[in-house]
Amino acid sequence: MKNTEFDQDQEQVGGISRRDFIKFCSAVAAGLALPGAMTAKIAHAITNPNRPPVIWLHGSECTGCSMSLLRAEHPTLEKLMLELISLDFHETLSAGAGHQAEEALEQSVEANYGKFILIIEGAVPLKDGGIYCRVGGKNFVDIVRDIGPKAGAVIAVGSCASWGGVAAMAPNPTGCVGVSEVLKDQTVVSIPGCPPNPYNLLSTIIHYLTFNKLPALDSENRPKFAYGRLIHEHCERRPHFDNGRFARAFGDESHRQGHCLYYLGCKGPVTYANCSTSQFGDAGSGCWPVAIGHPCFGCAQKGVGFNVPQFTVSPVLHQTPAAGHAPIIVERGEGVSPGSAALMAGLGGVALGAGAVFAAKLDKGSKHEDEEA
């Protein structure tokens, strides 16, 4: 940028003021857990005239992940495609179709060998050679095997692409799997969710543009900045969990009061994601399932969403303190840990399936700890 006075509103970057642009870059740096000094480097990467080519493939899916991206506002989809990246191929958004679109795909792969970002949305059917998902006269699995090794980076967006998602639900008649099961010799970044937050994808792309490498990943190749903590740790209803205030039925008084949804089947205690902090749709606070009164489905967690019945009680993986400050006055029982007290208070003397058994185990374990102490 020739003008270093970024705070002048009259200066424009891609149709927005430099002030707003730098605010966006600062927000990206914060979301990626990077120091503020990286803001200028991110700004340079985004405004680089050599836009990185992106190829977006679709397998067995509903296109919900693309629809989620359509609702991103910072940047909007048209700014993303026309100013930040070069979206060379996307079946849903392409102006061309048929042979014209397929030719554009082949040309982009050949011209940008080893440089383009490959984004795959949807699961990959393997049964019967993969005939249950065909694009342009080819089995989708063959397309992935052909184009995947030629990409500079591969990103599986959505739960279907990450591990199979809804397409791989039992009995999985088409043998759907995640992209990593097909490209086993490559690092496939996983951005799970149904749909995932679009900013988790955008931030991953911007990190790659800025540093020419992928962000830090966890054991399942998910970006740690977005999937490093359980939803339960930073849920807005966590104080109610800690103090034993639980909704027991949809529409009851506790549900109307906004109490914890744990006993309505919330999967926040076993799901790693940033839904409660990033939220959805650029609609401000309160735009995610728990905020509107529905328990987390666990769509971003392999083995939970689309596998565990929706309203069954889940275990609490880690009895960790809440992300916020502890209240001065805490309502809890005596002789048990805070997490156990919350569960036991929620039980209210009524056995509630697996949740009751799990709570009893917690209580027994805490008493054993007290005796050893």
Explain what you see:
The protein is α/β, with parallel strands linked by helices. Helix content is 34%, strand content 10%. The protein has 2 domains: 48-226, 3-Layer(aba) Sandwich (Rossmann fold), CATH 3.40.50.700; 231-372, Cytochrome-c3 hydrogenase, C-terminal domain (Cytochrome-c3 Hydrogenase, Chain A, domain 2), CATH 4.10.480. The chain has a 5-stranded parallel beta sheet, with helices on both faces.
Descriptive tags:
two-stranded antiparallel sheet, alpha/beta, single chain, Cytochrome-c3 Hydrogenase, Chain A, domain 2, 2 domains, 5-stranded parallel beta sheet, 373 residues, 10% strand
Q: What name goes with the CATH superfamily of the largest domain?
A: NADH:ubiquinone oxidoreductase-like, 20kDa subunit
Give, in spatial order, the strands making up the sheet with the most strands. 4-3-5-9-11
Radius of gyration: 23 Å
CATH domain class name of the largest domain? Alpha Beta
Gross morphology: globular
CATH architecture of the largest domain: 3-Layer(aba) Sandwich
